[in-house]
Amino acid sequence: MWSSDRSTVAGRPASRWAAVAVGAVLAAGCGFRLAGTAPLPASLARPHLSFSDPYSDFARFFGQELRDAGATLQASDASATATVDVSRDTVEQRVLSVSAQNIPTEYLLIYTVTYSVRHAGKELLAPQTISLSQDYSFSEQAVLAKEHEADRLRRQMARELAAIAMRRIASLK
Fold first, then answer.
1. In angstroms, rounded to a whole number, what is the distance separating the alpha carbons of residues 52 and 153?
2. pTM score, two decimals?
3. What are the E-state strand segments in 52-100?
4. Angular region, 97: left φ>0, alpha ψ -120 to 50, beta rest
5. Residue 63 belongs to a domain with what CATH number?
6. Cα three-residue angle 152-153-159, rounded to 5 degrees
7. What is the DSSP letter of 2?
8. What value does the CA radius of gyration of the chain take, rounded to a whole number of Å?
9. Distance of CA 77 to the CA centre of its chain
10. Where do runs of H (alpha helix) occur along 30-170?
């Protein structure tokens, strides 16, 4: 679209579009990347994942993070370029407070993961333990809603732990 007094693109001044384009070029030139887009080292191009629980939330999110980063997951250790061993993947629930009737009113969820990375028989990353915790209130009148809240918190923590593990793995050389 062109107006009679100055040029516009889609109803906005062309100078604004030029400023956005220049900003994007400068950001790309300085090495800026969106979160989660760090490239994996070549040694992790075809990793084998070894989980203590392959059906956990962390296992699902971590596998997806690796695939999103361009890795091709291998079914066996023999065809893999590296092995990511997740030796611990646990969720613990603790009572934080109780009512006068000794009924829990607040819980603490703790999600803990321990993993390591091996490449060609050599340890690239020593066992790392990462943990997140989140508390939530509990009410007997809303048992189903509170169970749903706990499940949602557990999935959110697993997603965050997978992102943390990926950032650490992506930093390997």
1. 21
2. 0.74
3. 82-98
4. beta
5. 3.30.160.150
6. 90
7. B
8. 23
9. 24
10. 57-68, 143-170
Instruction: Measure CA of the first residue to CA of the last residue in the chain; give whole Å.
Output: 50
Six-digit token pair at 83? 């092995």
CB atoms within 10 A of CB 84: 24
pLDDT digits (tens, 9 = 90+) for 131-150: 999 998 887 788 788 888 88
Phi then psi for residue 37, to 5 deg, are -110, 15
* 44 and 77 housed in the same domain: yes
Residue 22 tokens read as 């220049």
The label of the residue with tokens 């070549």 reads: 42
Residue 52 DSSP label = S
Work out how many domains the chain is built from and give that number. Answer: 2
Distance of CA 127 to the CA centre of its chain: 18
Q: Do 119 and 84 share a structural domain?
A: yes
Same domain membership, residue 26 and residue 48: no
81-131 tens-digit pLDDT: 999 999 999 999 999 998 888 888 898 999 999 999 999 889 999 999 999
The boundaries of the domain holding residue 17 are 1-32
